[in-house]
């Protein structure tokens, strides 16, 4: 699953650790989501999107799994 | 209760997490007390049950002494470390994030599943080899496999009611 987290972080000058602290996960989890090695749960996806003030579909691209 | 203390269930806030860790401190203290009882068992009961001048006597004495001492030392150290972490808010936040992190939980689930599969395969191999020369070992392996599947079914039933 592709995400726009790196771009959103950079535009807000936010480190992975700061985002991780804000949504209550470890920095490694944010890294894994950014590189596509781990798919965030609905709850975490919502928290991240909410943190950036966006909708989930604006942060995560679900088109890969669509048939 | 025990499962709630150690399985990475999410807490609603830092206060709830603090309470969880406080309960865990008591658990570790309980482990140390159990270790003291094991040591007492070793010093007072074992010499009366097994003759100490035999090989099995020495083995059982060493077994209870080692297990008891390990439980006391680990229990005290873990309780102390846990109690100390309760005073440091920043450390507590980091521990909470690490413990309740969903990726860590997923990694742990996969690791436990893989380890269980490998253990089952090893037990099967031991069972096949031991069948030739040690009925006791075969019974032990069958017992372990049975305990594993009974526990698995019990947890499956517990979680299907919970989730």
- Average the pLDDT over all residues of chain B and give the rounded result: 89
What fraction of the residues of chain B are assigned to beta strands by DSSP? under 5%
Poorly predicted runs of chain B are: none
Q: Tell me which oligomeric state these chains represent.
A: heterodimer
How much is the average pLDDT of chain A?
A: 91
DSSP helix fraction of chain B: over 70%
Instruction: State the distance separating the first and last CA atoms of chain A.
Output: 14 Å
Ends of chain B: how far apart? Answer: 17 Å
Number of extended strands of chain A: 2
Structural class from helices and strands of chain A? mainly alpha
Describe the sheet with the most strands of chain A. Answer: 2 strands, antiparallel
Shape annotation of chain B: flat
Structural class of chain B: mainly alpha
Number of strand elements of chain B:
0
Radius of gyration of chain A: 11 Å
Q: Name the helix and strand elements of chain A from N-terminus to C-terminus, one letter apiece.
A: EHHHHHE
Name the poorly predicted regions of chain A. none
Total of helices of chain B: 6
Order of helices and strands of chain B: HHHHHH
Q: Going across the major beta sheet of chain A, what is the strand order?
A: 1-2
Describe the structure in your own words.
The complex is a heterodimer of chains A (67) and B (163). Chain A is mainly alpha-helical and 67 residues long. Chain A has helices spanning 5-11, 16-23, 27-35, 42-52, 56-59; strands at residues 2-3, 60-61. A two-stranded antiparallel ribbon of chain A has the order 1-2. The relative contact order of chain A is 0.22. Chain B is built from 6 helices and no strands. In chain B, α2 packs antiparallel against α3 (55-85) and α5 packs antiparallel against α6 (135-162). In chain B, 88% of the residues lie in helices and 0% in strands. The mean pLDDT of chain B is 89. Chains A and B meet through α3 of A and α4 and α5 of B.
């Amino acid at each position: 699953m592709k995400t726009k987290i790196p771009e959103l972080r950079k535009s807000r000058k936010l480190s992975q650790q700061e985002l991780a602290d804000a949504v209550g996960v470890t920095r490694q989890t944010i890294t894994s989501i950014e590189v596509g090695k781990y798919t965030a749960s609905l709850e975490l996806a919502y928290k991240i999107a909410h943190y950036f003030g966006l909708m989930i579909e604006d942060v995560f691209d679900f088109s890969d799994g669509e048939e | 209760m025990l499962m709630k203390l150690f399985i990475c269930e999410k807490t609603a806030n830092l206060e709830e997490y603090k309470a969880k860790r406080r309960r865990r401190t008591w658990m570790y203290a309980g482990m140390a007390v159990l270790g003291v009882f094991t040591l007492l068992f070793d010093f007072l009961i074992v010499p009366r049950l097994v003759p100490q001048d035999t090989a099995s006597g020495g083995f059982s004495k060493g077994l209870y002494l080692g297990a008891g001492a390990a439980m006391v030392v680990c229990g005290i150290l873990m309780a102390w470390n846990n109690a100390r972490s309760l005073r440091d808010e920043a450390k507590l936040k980091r521990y909470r994030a690490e413990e309740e992190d969903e990726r860590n939980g997923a990694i742990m689930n996969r690791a436990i599943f893989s380890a269980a599969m490998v253990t089952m395969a090893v037990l099967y191999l031991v069972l096949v080899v031991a069948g030739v020369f040690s009925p006791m070992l075969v019974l032990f392996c069958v017992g372990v496999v049975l305990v594993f599947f009974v526990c698995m079914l019990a947890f499956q039933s517990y979680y299907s009611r919970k989730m």
